[in-house]
Every structure is written in structure tokens, then in C-alpha cells.
Design a protein that fits this description.
It is built from three helices and six strands. It is of the alpha+beta class. Helix 1 runs antiparallel to helix 2 and helix 2 runs antiparallel to helix 3.
Amino acid sequence: MLLTMKSRLTNEATDAGPDLLPGTGRHRTTLLPRRRTTPRTARDFVATTLTEWGETSRLDDMQLCTSELVTNAVLHGTPVGRLVLVRVESLAEGLRVEVHDSGESGPAQRVPEESVVGGRGLLIVDATADNWGVKERTGLGKCVWAAFGRAKSGAAPLPPHTIGPQGGTS
């Protein structure tokens, strides 16, 4: 079940009372269960939201970072029976995705051994997002966020897959 709602997050610079002030941006929030499929559901939520808003210039980067942050929340931050909150924001200064969990420990960026399969999530976020960080929340848990500037090129983005002429001879 996917529950989408407007949210009021405490201890956030973008909070302005119950919701954002008119004209300052928009946001959408969803609560997801702690499951193996949650990262995929979160990526789909981000893609749907940004597509509806016409904000697809950094869609791939935001989906990748969402996946990594939600995976960390599911594996390390969210206790059994608790939910993961994902929030997407479009503000004048750019785009942002937040992942909230109720775990006590903060994320740790590390450099894993070459032969280790996992452990690169925050390295990927660091290399992909323009900025990222961790904020404590009022009450349990933390918020791990990643921020993205909009694409600076005035050109229209390329389609997802560009395929050359089919069956022609040159």
C-alpha cells in the first residue's frame, strides 16, 4: 500500500508552518513499509512526482540517490514494524529528496574493500548529488537528504534511449 500525503516536518529549514508558504515551492511525501521492495517503490514515487511536476532534468540522479538512501534506511535505520518516510521537494534553488527513518544510528560513509559487494551507497550519493547531509529530527530518528540543482543546459534532454536507423544500409 502506498500512502501519499502532505507532511509537516520539524526541524527543517524549508518548513514554514503547516506547509510551505505559497509560492516558495512544493513537496510530496509518502510513507512506506520496511520491505525489500521499498527502494523500488520509493524510486517510482520520485519518478511519478517529478514527472507530474515537469521536473525531470535530474530524474535519474534523484532516483539513484533515493534508492541508495532508502536501501540504507531499510537495512540499517528502520526498526521492524516501522515506516520509512520519503519526501520530494521542488524549491526555487533546486530539487531535494529526504529519507526519514526512526533508527538511532546515523549513516557512515566508508570505503569498502574491492571484493565487498555492498557498502557504497553513500559514496554513490556523494558522487551524484550536488549536496547531501543528515539532520536530526524532533523525536526518534533522522533525515538523510540529497539536493540537486536543475540541469543548467537550455537544450531539451535526450530521450532515454536513442537508437539509430533500423535495417538501413550506409
